[in-house]
Design brief:
Elements: E1 2-4, E2 38-42, E3 45-49, E4 56-59, H1 61-69, E5 76-80, H2 94-99, E6 102-104, H3 110-115, E7 120-125, E8 128-129, H4 136-141, E9 145-148, H5 167-182, H6 185-203, E10 212-216, E11 224-226, H7 231-239, E12 242-243, E13 252-254, H8 257-263, E14 267-272, H9 278-287, H10 295-298, E15 302-306, H11 307-310, H12 316-333
Parallel strand pairs: 1-3, 4-5, 4-7, 5-6, 7-8, 7-9, 10-12, 10-14, 14-15
Antiparallel strand pairs: 2-3, 11-13
Length: 334
């Protein structure tokens, strides 16, 4: 079991490499939370937080909005996020974004985490952490605790591919863990119940014949897509579709165009983010000669979802609801 010591202990434990986070936070009943150790399972490992974090730095939009959904913006020191992940003007967390400092329009680094006096960095593998730029161990040595996004957990069997559970289970796991870490269990439980109810409502309307779906993230030489462990897999399946890349035991990964042609999806869902607009992605797909006989292209069944809909985030249930409506229209059209 990995134990994260409090930042107050650093002077007495300079030789300890894993250091931790926290301070007091209000419980759901409004009473001050006691500084007590909390242990959760994160990416298959037991991790103990001696105190509740109070200066959290997050990486990327989905992770940041998990904190906002739980009402924890007052426990944040900042967030790192590129500005190509969609407009923040009409999001449900507009007020929270206004309160928390945008510390980097790139990604979290040890330097900007230290500058923010972070006691916890909430990020994930390929969501801020990677072996060539920043690892959790580097932050631990600098006296900063970490929590890993469950969608990004590395699969122990492969060591490199990401994903250890179904995507919605990953969302619910993180909400439950964050609820315990910050003493807001009731809020977490309520959100999980609401999300499950939304998903169940869509699932009840799934068409008898499920349309097959290809998730197009980016790439022209080789398309980047979602395997079975990234959020689109379950967004597609719960909305009433079948992910044509379900057999890929990874989260986000590349395939060949020949695979897309062979599997002939009824619908293509575009991930809207980055320098290339959704319109340009759509124009490319509709004009790319190898795809001309693919059902989705022939019928122009191309649907757009935002980046924040398609990574683990509080927007996943709403994305299921919206995509579900579109897939029913496609199914009804025959």
């Amino acid at each position: 079991m990995r134990k994260l010591l409090t930042t107050a202990s650093l002077g007495l434990a300079a030789a300890v490499t894993l250091t931790g986070c926290g301070a007091k936070v209000a419980h759901d009943d409004g009473k001050a939370a006691k500084a007590e150790a909390v242990t959760v399972t994160n990416c298959g490992e037991k991790v103990t937080y001696d105190k509740r974090p109070e200066r959290v730095v997050t990486n990327d939009i989905g992770i940041t909005e998990l904190m906002f959904a739980l009402g924890l913006e007052d426990r944040m020191a900042g967030y790192a996020m590129p500005d190509d992940k969609g407009s923040l003007k009409d999001v449900p967390y507009k007020d929270a974004y206004a309160k928390v400092k945008w510390i980097s329009k790139d990604r979290v680094t040890k330097e900007n985490a230290l500058a923010a006096r972070a006691d916890l960095v909430f990020a994930g593998w390929n969501y801020g952490f990677n072996e060539n730029a920043l690892t959790p161990d580097e932050l631990h040595k600098a006296g900063i605790g970490t929590y890993l996004l469950t969608e990004s957990c590395r699969n122990a069997r492969t060591g490199t591919s990401r994903g250890i559970m179904p995507p919605l289970d990953a969302l619910y796991t993180d909400l439950e863990n964050l609820g315990k870490i910050f003493g807001v269990e009731a809020r977490a439980t309520k959100l999980i119940e609401e999300y499950k109810a939304t998903v169940a409502g869509v699932h009840a309307k799934i068409p008898a014949k499920r349309p097959s779906v290809f998730l197009y993230d980016s790439g022209q030489d080789q398309p980047f897509t979602s395997g079975r462990y990234a959020a689109p897999e379950q967004i597609i399946s719960e909305a009433g579709g079948v992910n044509i890349a379900h057999d890929l035991k990874d989260s986000w990964t590349t395939v060949g165009w020949e695979t897309v042609v062979e599997r002939n999806p009824d619908v293509i869902v575009i991930n809207d983010y980055g320098a290339t607009s959704a319109k340009k992605k759509r124009d490319f797909l509709l004009s790319y000669p190898p795809l001309r006989n693919v059902s989705a292209i022939k019928n122009k069944h191309v649907y757009v979802l935002d980046y924040a809909d398609l990574v683990e985030s509080p927007r996943n249930p709403s994305a299921i609801e919206r995509l579900g409506g579109y897939l029913r229209e496609v199914a009804d059209a025959g």
